[in-house]
Design brief:
By secondary structure, this protein is mainly alpha-helical. The chain has helices spanning about 5-30, 35-40, 45-60, 90-110, and strands at about 65-70, 75-80. Helix content is about 65%, strand content about 10%.
Amino acid sequence: MNEKGSLKAHNEQAWALFMEAERKHLWMRTEGHLARLHGSALPDETPEGLAWLAEEDRLRASEGLVDLMDGLGKIIHKHIDEITPQDRSTMLRAEGARLEWIVGHRYSRNR
């Protein structure tokens, strides 16, 4: 196999592993993983509001919707079967924003 063919095979394998991880992430969200990460509501939050956020996330995940963040910071959703390698950076931006919120939420709760 030539160098170009080897690189293409490597990229295809990396994409397959990335998509496998994304499907596992969707399954975890469907199982309510985000709700467990949130923990309890902060003083300026209601338990119902936090539960609503977690349930919305669970429902989107059960529909196979992946979060992407556009260049303006707006979260948009795309079905996992429509994701392309070009979507990776917007998916990672959305994941980073989610993690930042979770860490900030946990930090605020533990202060």
